[in-house]
Amino acid sequence: MISKTIVCDVLVVGSGVSGVCAAVSASRKGTEVVLVEKNDFPGGTAIIAMHRYICGLHLKGVGLEVSRALNKLEPENKIIFMGKLKVLPFQTKHLEIVLRNLIKAQKKLKVFYNTTLFSLNKEKGLILSVRARRAGMILNIQPKVVIDASGEGVVIKLSRADYQLTPLRERQMQGFSVRLKGIEVKDQLLSIKVPYSLRKAAKSKEILKCFRFTTFVFGSAKGEGFCKFNIPYIRGFSINKNAAIVHNYLRKALPEFKNSYIAETSPCLVEREGMRLVGEYILTRKDILASRKFYDAVVRGDWPIEFWHQKNGQQVEYLKPGRFYEIPLRVLHSKNIKNLFATGRCISATSEAIASSRVMGTCIALGEAAGTAASKYARTIS
Ligand SMILES: Cc1cc2nc3c(=O)[nH]c(=O)nc-3n(C[C@H](O)[C@H](O)[C@H](O)COP(=O)(O)OP(=O)(O)OC[C@H]3O[C@@H](n4cnc5c(N)ncnc54)[C@H](O)[C@@H]3O)c2cc1C
Asked: Measuring from atom 32 of ligand 1, which residue has the nearest CA?
């Protein structure tokens, strides 16, 4: 295998929304940045799970840029209220374009897709180098600072940083989506009819019990809709087989689905929470519900705690109306690895706190803050 050595200031692992924003902000601060991503596209969970709404978006910094760029591609989509909460509708193909353009525009940012980080070399509490695999090649990357934006905490794990990991049986449900076409839409009630029908079918054991937490949203094209599955951790679960079973059931149960077909299925299950950092501070449920402020605040969040319980389904705890909480810089910085930062789903937060801060809008802002902080740290190292 060919081996290539790359020296950089900041290495970002993972190009989900948070990783892209971290890489963009670090490169804008004048540091040399490398971004590695195991897939061949940016956007991570949001693309794989076919999201329709950006939740928790603050129209500031890179968040504002993303919203403006999306708006150019889909002018009909404006921020809307979903119940008490504001969300920005979007199409995943447009998000991918926006993120690719953001990356391309940075002179000091090199991106490597189809590249998987797999090992790490550390000494005296400092990451010295990491190795990543890429089509017949090993990249030996020597960064001053690393940002774990992998969602699953791959750098946290390899560097043996102090970490938090919720036991499987207590972890929030994972998910996948199915995009359907050919739905005959007579009314907007399918968002209620589909979950109701699947709950009933799960109760009478016509389909697996785990499908009782499915939601439905319309797509932007005529006859398009998305079934969003939220499922507990089940061994040997097959996405394609189960998507077909549920779709067959819907075709029989609801006339609107009679001529529908599956256009796309998530390629894998996506997790709501993975391995997270233990930082200099751990964000908690109490901080969120009390709209707590911090002296070293870098991000604002106002999304409720939306906990997807494996037995009881979605449980929502709102902040008081008009309030927001702050996220301190300390939750982005490892307690025991000096040059390790985390962002997005990997930050130092409890399982309940991450149920609020993991939404895309907050992850975008966290990425921007992590990139700025990592770049500043890199400048302190000669
Ligand atoms: C089922 C579900 C539904 C959701 N619905 C919504 C919603 O409607 N709206 C909303 O705003 N939020 C929603 N969220 C939350 C939100 O999508 C995610 O929390 C957010 O997108 C996470 O962004 P991230 O950048 O932290 O991580 P991710 O998007 O998970 O990105 C991590 C990236 O790291 C890469 N990676 C992992 N390991 C490696 C490695 N070893 N080497 C290289 N690359 C690696 C992955 O391929 C991935 O691209 C939902 C989450 C789930 C699970």
From this structure: 150
Same domain, 322 and 363: yes
Indicate whether residue 14 lines ligand 1 (CB < 6 A).
yes
Residue where one domain finishes, among candidates 233, 265, 297: 265
Q: 344: CA distance to ligand 1 center in Å? A: 8
* Ligand 1 contact via 225 beta carbon (within 6 Å): no
List % helix, strand, coil for the chain (3-state, nearest 5). 35, 30, 35
For the Cβ of 117 lying below 6 angstroms from any atom of ligand 1, the answer is yes
Distances (CA, A) of 364 to 227, 303, 331, 359: 25, 14, 15, 9
Q: Domain ends where: 238, 265, 292?
A: 265
- Same domain? For 23 and 128 the reply is yes
Taking the centre of ligand 1 as the mean of its atom positions, its distance from the CA of residue 377, in whole angstroms, is 25
β-strand pairing of 137-148 with 340-342:
parallel
Phi–psi pair at 58, nearest 5 degrees: -105, 130
Strand partners for 112: 36
CATH number, position 334: 3.50.50.60
Tens-binned pLDDT, residue by residue, of the chain (382 aa): 899 999 999 999 999 999 999 999 999 999 999 999 999 999 999 999 999 999 999 999 999 999 999 999 999 989 999 888 999 999 999 999 999 999 999 999 999 999 999 999 999 999 999 999 999 999 999 999 999 999 999 999 999 999 999 999 999 999 999 999 999 987 789 999 999 999 999 999 989 999 999 999 999 999 999 999 999 999 999 999 999 999 999 999 999 999 999 999 999 999 999 999 999 999 999 999 999 999 999 999 999 999 999 999 999 999 999 999 999 999 999 999 999 999 999 999 999 999 999 999 999 999 999 999 999 999 998 6
Tell me, yes or no, whether 134 and 181 share the same domain. no
Does the beta carbon of 45 lie inside 6 Å of ligand 1? yes
d(CA 36, CA 43): 13
What's the domain range around 181? 173-265
Ligand 1 in reach of 17 Cβ (< 6 A):
yes
Same structural domain, 186 and 37: no
Number of separate domains in the chain: 2
Do 178 and 213 lie in one domain? The reply is: yes
Q: Say if pTM beats, i.e. exceeds, 0.70.
A: yes
